[in-house]
Amino acid sequence: MTVRRVLKMGDPLLYRRADPVPNLDTPELHALIQDMFDTMHALNGAGLAAPQIGASQRVVIFEVSANSRYPDVETVPTTVLINPVLAPIGDEMEEGWEGCLSVPGLRGRVSRHQHLRYTGFDAMGNPIDRTVSGFHARVVQHECDHLDGILYPMRLADIRLLGFEDALFPDL
Ligand code: NI
């Protein structure tokens, strides 16, 4: 069990385009993914991208079950997604609140594609091909943005859509 330090907004590595993973099902890759899950679970996150723990590789994980950070949202299956490719379906966009372990204490209201197909590979090298909507689609877009050096505040239409959690949601 290794909980790694999560890089915070401002760290240059978070703004880099991460490198593709050349070989799947390697001990190094499995160790990285285990550290990512340990770190995400320790911080009660819904997702994590490898660059957030200092590994500039195209690996994301996500899962949404009963999570105190997102008490009211639909669940998302536990997923390891490597070398992802995202293809939005249609033009429909949806606004929603997002948080990020690299931007602690803040939430922002971000517009994302409502419907999306994504492909990639799991840790063993098995292909993944899913068509998703809503919060699942939002989580994938947020995590995969990390692989292109994009943090959600960079997608805000207005800086007033960013705020501290305890000011935005005083009852939580
Ligand atoms: Ni994030």
Descriptive notes:
With 172 residues, the protein is an alpha+beta fold. 20% of the residues lie in helices and 31% in strands. It is built from three helices and eight strands; from the N terminus they run αβββββββαβα. It has helices spanning 27-42, 134-147, 165-168; strands at residues 47-49, 59-64, 76-88, 93-98, 106-113, 115-121, 127-133, 162-164. The strands form two sheets. It has a five-stranded antiparallel β-sheet, sandwiched between helices. Strands 4-5-8 form a three-stranded antiparallel β-sheet. β6 (115-121) and β7 (127-133) form a beta hairpin. The protein starts with 26 loop residues before the first helix and ends with a helix. The relative contact order is 0.19. The mean pLDDT is 95. Bound molecules: nickel (II) ion. Nickel (II) ion (NI) binds next to α2.
Oligomer: single chain
Mean pLDDT score, rounded? 95
SS field, number of helical segments: 3
Succession of helices and strands: HEEEEEEEHEH
Overall strand count: 8
What is the 3D shape? globular
C-alpha end-to-end distance:
30 Å
Hetero compounds: nickel (II) ion
| Structural class determined from secondary elements | alpha+beta
How are the strands of the biggest sheet laid out side by side?
Answer: 1-2-3-6-7
**Portion in strands:** 25-35%
The largest β sheet comes out as: 5 strands, antiparallel
Percentage of residues in helical conformation: 10-25%
Radius of gyration over all CA atoms, rounded:
15 Å
Query: Which regions have little confidence, pLDDT < 50, spanning 5+ residues?
Result: none
